[in-house]
Write a structure and sequence with these properties.
With 273 residues, the chain is an alpha/beta fold. The protein has a single domain, classed as 3-Layer(aba) Sandwich (Rossmann fold). The protein is built from ten helices and seven strands. A seven-stranded mixed β-sheet has the order 3-2-1-4-5-7-6.
Length: 273
């Protein structure tokens, strides 16, 4: 079905509003951390992201287009959980505390860890959340899991019987190194116990609307730099579907997607081994 130019512009403007918010907080971060840009540019970017994401994160978490889908994903998690990229824990209220033994939260931006722990306590998960200073990519995640004592630091192979009952990713794999997605998914699969589930809700590339594809390509020149390395052309759905070894794959584009938006939103659950 054709979509009006006005509707497109309104949808595309959301990204520019987010970029404008980030720019507002750039001088604030410079004032708060006057030497960090010089001593550690990557840490400055993390501090900058934290400064505006404390405003943006809760807004996205309660979005009508996302909250219900995220609830369906996180409410299924149980036992020993690994969450990739939880940010400041804005989505954590969807977990069912009675089903959770422990959540190992792999969040590379350590500026977000205090908010993550505050939200965990607020929503009945006090003492159950352990922040890890790690991204989703194997080169970052595996050393953090070794440091936490979850996998052996003396053997090169991962535990044959896995480690986690559930592994969760909510709108974070767009920020993982895209050239390492296949390796990331392979490690996720290896870390799951037999019968464990990989549960996620992600936005992925729109590959059907030529106008939006062009717009996303242009935006990707600046979007990742200002939005925590988020990419608007994520392909995790295709990586999952191209990976063998899963007992069950359930990949669904959300019913809200009309075909012209920048990112399709996919909710997936994959049963391991």
């Amino acid at each position: 079905m054709a979509v009006s130019i006005i509707t497109r512009i309104q949808g595309y403007l959301v990204h520019w509003q987010m970029l404008a918010l980030a720019l507002v907080y750039l001088p604030i971060t410079l004032i708060s951390h006057p030497f960090l840009l010089i001593t550690s540019p990557s840490s400055f970017r993390s501090a900058w992201f934290e400064s505006y994401f404390k405003i943006l994160g809760p807004q996205l978490a309660t979005s009508d287009l996302q909250a219900g889908h995220v609830e369906q994903v996180l409410s299924r998690a149980s036992g020993i959980v690994l969450e990739l990229g939880p940010g400041g824990g804005d989505q954590i209220y969807h977990y069912k505390p009675s089903r959770i033994n422990k959540i190992y939260a792999a969040e590379p931006n350590t500026f977000l860890h205090p908010a993550l722990l505050r939200n965990a306590e607020k929503h009945g998960l006090k003492g159950k959340v352990v922040p890890l200073a790690a991204g989703a990519e194997p080169s970052s995640l595996l050393p953090a899991l070794k440091k936490a004592g979850l996998i052996s630091s003396t053997t090169p192979s991962l535990p044959e019987k896995g480690v986690f009952d559930s592994i969760v990713a909510i709108k974070c794999l767009c920020s993982a190194p895209q050239d390492q997605l296949a390796a990331t998914v392979a490690v996720v699969q290896a870390l799951l116990k037999p019968g464990g589930e990989f549960l996620f809700f992600e936005h992925v590339a729109n590959d059907s609307d030529k106008i939006t594809i062009s717009y996303a390509w242009i935006m990707n020149w600046i979007w990742p730099v200002m939005m925590g390395n988020c990419h608007l052309d994520g392909k995790v759905d295709k990586v999952i579907m191209g990976t063998g070894g899963w007992e069950v794959k359930n990949v669904q584009t959300t019913g809200d997607f009309q075909g012209w938006e920048v990112g399709q939103q996919v909710a997936e659950d994959v049963l391991s081994r």
